[in-house]
């Protein structure tokens, strides 16, 4: 039928002779004629859609139009001739039929989607493209890759012009326009992508013939197996283009298949779940003509692939066509002589089939059994001669079949019972070289079915003495299954013993490490650390002698990840004598660092450890990470490594053996000297150690414990200067001084406080001055609260730390526009006032502060009074420097409150100073009057309650 259609197309467009014989007719030539077409079985024609009946069917002769019908639908004249009545009358006559269609569409039809439980093809493509590559030159023949190609576009006003133009295009594409290119793999892939874009561009620019020809020429490429190693990748690239072509055809037919709903006069687009009865007859004929045209392709392979690409379009014709079409195409593939080309054609048919119908599975079984029947061709003379020509080993050749066979058999095995597995194993035994089939079966069936027969599969693998198919692939595939679903418990040790004996006998390091990468997970999951340690030792023994490990860093890293993630007892892992030698195999620094990160991340599950072997292992891993940090390391990488090292520092715990703990911290300090965060963590840990020591002895230190806490204070004092951040150093100096003071280590505390005071001026060198000032205000206030209870050193004089602080504050580069320094002086007055009291508001147990040492001695109070005078003078100088304004008035009012609350205003003319400060606030006029009123009321109430005549006199002088 397809051939007759092509012949009629050419005859209809031949020019008429100048003189033609006149013949009288009784009918208009454009009127639809009816011709009886006897149904012929699909197997014979190979193109005509099956009607499901042997009775004659009527087909309008006008539908058998030329190429325009196949690609664009009916031309306007033919369409007008078909319509024997006007459109409105026709619609009225067809309404009863459409009523039935509405009933059909109202039912929920099952979506045509893949419901087979298997790995989708999309997830396999990247693996295929990355695995099957070549360095050989690849050949491609096409009419559409020449840069000089020009397709002339003309404006066709009539259907005859349009058909004539398309025939000219076909002639141009067929006659000498093809070009043969010799390309590298990268160039080949680029050309395939160019063809893909060209097809889509041609389709959207109304060049349907060109799009069809591109699809045909792409499909022809799959008949060529000149470069065997690249054929699976070529299949992926070409079928992607064919998928796009099939989608374009389907959507084109769907947009042309508008129909009329009940009572509507406007056409409506077909819904997603349409039925064939909803498709207009014109759209059905356009769909048939697509299949007719494809059936006229002379070569078998492109004819099969292009029809498979548009197979979904059968849904416009009949809902029962898929089964017959899929089986017909399955049988047609038997005509492909090259077994590799044939198996990938079957793969594409199965891939297309499961996306359009989930109920039909006969064609899936038929495809796989057809491959089994022709399995001997894989090892035939024709195939072997091709391998010799291309210098491809039989082992490599058989692996080319695995992507296609795995997909086909997974589709067959999906939802199948275990009896099918037994049947296929029996059939495999009938073939000599059955390793390829065995590997496909293990990849396709559910892991639980394979694992339950693990010993049987091992017997079959051991029977495969030929080296045609790699034994390591069979072992690896079996390992993937048992890792998902383990064999019965009583078989596991027997399985691993037999498997590991086979793996150990592998001489090729690549094959060995490929198997170990899979089976190590099974061993870690179901055996003790003893077996894991033995296998790790075997890995090291296999790879160390010839330094082969340098080629397999990714596999080794995967092995370490599986061991670490699956190991239940992490301490046992670190204690293995073969574990560190395994890590030593990573000679490349970047790989070793990544592996150490993986291990130390898993260390979070480790609560505490004091084992020397585990501690040394952790220090080794941490040192590797630390030594990888340099000046070029980004900040986020530093942060990650620091966090891992801090976790390890907190994990090592020797309990009551504080000396051993301090020795560990000293060792860690020497090993991690370049990371501030780790050093700060070590200082915190040592301070905690000192506090715990005091808690245990309940504040009563012995000579040994006193020496130990002094050693802790010395550790902190030595470690803090190594930290780069000034902020961190200041905080740690203050903290370490407090801890030393808490343990009655007065000399060490005094040294820490003085070191902090000496460091204060460096803080303002920071770029962010606002942040530095905010931190400094909080820090100085905290420091003053500590200085209150710090006893004076007999070697330094009275209030030595306070004097150093007061001498340091003016040297800091303050912002002259703010009131930070004046406010700090006010805080100093608060501290000095508290220091002059007979008893301080708080103390440290077992530490005598100045209130106990001096006992309110007049000389001590005189020193405090002098220091207050100096602070007051400096504060008034700062107020003068601020100048008139709101800030000056606020400081003046706060100073007034301090003077009246904390000092004896009857001395030294303080009452006059207080009045002057009040007048200054009134003069500025920037302070809230309500606040000033409440201040005056507070002073008045205080003077009356304490019978302080001087304060009452002062209040009377404070006029509003």
Question: How would you describe this structure in keywords?
Answer:
transport, protein transport, two-stranded antiparallel sheet, 960 residues, mainly alpha, VPS35L, 4 strands
Structural overview:
With 960 residues, this protein is mainly alpha-helical. Among the domains are: 770-882, no CATH class; 899-959, no CATH class. It is elongated, with a radius of gyration of 46 Å. Residues 1-115, 146-157 and 170-176 have low confidence and may be disordered.
Give the arrangement of secondary structure elements.
Blueprint (H helix, E strand, L loop, with lengths): L1 H11 L21 E4 L4 H4 L11 E4 L6 H6 L3 H7 L4 H20 L15 H10 L6 E5 L16 H16 L4 E5 L1 H20 L3 H14 L9 H26 L24 H15 L4 H10 L11 H12 L6 H18 L5 H12 L7 H10 L3 H6 L2 H12 L4 H12 L5 H10 L2 H6 L1 H10 L7 H14 L4 H16 L4 H18 L2 H15 L9 H14 L3 H6 L3 H6 L4 H14 L9 H16 L7 H17 L6 H14 L4 H22 L5 H17 L6 H17 L3 H18 L5 H19 L12 H9 L11 H16 L14 H5 L3 H25 L3 H17 L7 H15 L4 H17 L3 H9 L3
Antiparallel strand pairs: 1-2, 3-4
